[in-house]
Amino acid sequence: MSAALTKAATLLAPVSPTPRLDAELLLAHALGISREALLLGPARPVPPAFEVLIRRRLAHEPVAYITGTRSFWTLDLHVTPDVLIPRPDSETLIETAIAHFGARAPATILDLGTGSGALLLASLDQWPDARGLGIDRSAAALAVARGNAERLGFGNRVRFVQGSWADALAARFDLILCNPPYVEAEATLAPDVADYEPSAALYAGPDGLDDYRRLVPQLRRLLAGNGVAVLEIGATQAAAVSRLAERAGLNAATAQDLAGLDRCVALTAP
User: Fold this and answer.
1) Which 3-state string (H, E, C) describes the chain?
2) What is the C-alpha radius of gyration for the chain, rounded to an integer number of angstroms?
3) What's the pTM value of the predicted model, to 2 decimals?
């Protein structure tokens, strides 16, 4: 088994920054066990399915789509090619919300463009008394999010509705989360992303700001008193998104991810 992992990691090195991890996750998936069980348990025969999974990864298919799972915050989420793969960088949004509320807790949470439900469900796990609403244009994405909510036990605390941003909403929320499309239309992305993840959730016009221009002006009317809207941004977009917020009558503060890159803006009413 160790030799098979070493061989697979060598094969994957040209297409992955984490070839050994990918190999371990794929072998665990082929065996129907967790990665922890693979690493800590007894050696097992390598199933023929492992070679098939390695070939899929060599074609740049993301591991999360191959296995159908991705860890985010405290949760293990089901993911499909209908949704973006949740990334550790996006956990910065949850950390920023926690810093805003401190000892308090939001009672109502809105997730715009919910996708897999990652941000919303992580927030509901963080604040057990909160209730949430997830909005997405994609019916297929909403099916993934609903499935995650039911499987993780949040079904009675969350609703998912098909819609375009906050167009049909009139309620106010303590916490608004959003990871909108923000990639420039002509940007060159890695094949793992460009060839597999949903383009509608990635690209947002020539400068990557189209969805912020539509979204940000809607936020002030949706924020409850002392509430916060936390939006993910590209690493070079903090100034532009902050200007949009200021024009909408909102204060903006930028937060960095673990790599020190600008990752989100926190918007509050004056």
Assistant:
1) CHHHHHHHHHHHCCCCCCHHHHHHHHHHHHHCCCHHHHHHCCCCCCCCHHHHHHHHHHCCCCHHHHHCEEEECCEEEECCCCCCCCCHHHHHHHHHHHHHHCCCCCCEEEEECCCCCHHHHHHHHHCCCCEEEEEECCHHHHHHHHHHHHHHCCHHHEEEEECCCCCCCCCCEEEEEECCCCECCCCCCCHHHHCCCCHHHCECCCCCCHHHHHHHHHHHHHEEEEEEEEEECCCCCHHHHHHHHHHCCCEEEEEECCCCCEEEEEEECC
2) 20
3) 0.94
Burial zone of 121 (CB within 10 Å; 0-12 exposed, 13-18 middle, 19+ buried): buried
pLDDT in tens, the chain (270 residues): 789 999 999 999 999 999 999 999 999 999 999 999 999 999 899 999 999 999 999 999 999 999 999 999 999 999 999 999 999 999 999 999 999 999 999 999 999 999 999 999 999 999 999 999 999 999 999 999 999 999 999 989 999 999 999 888 989 999 999 999 999 999 999 999 999 999 999 999 999 999 999 999 999 999 999 999 999 999 999 999 999 999 999 999 999 999 999 999 999 999
Going along the chain from its start, the domains and CATH numbers come out as 2-59 (1.10.8), 81-268 (3.40.50.150)
Q: What is the b/e burial string over 171-201, where b = at least 16 CB atoms within 10 angstroms of the residue's CB?
A: eebbbbbbbbbbbbeeeeeeebbeebbbeeb
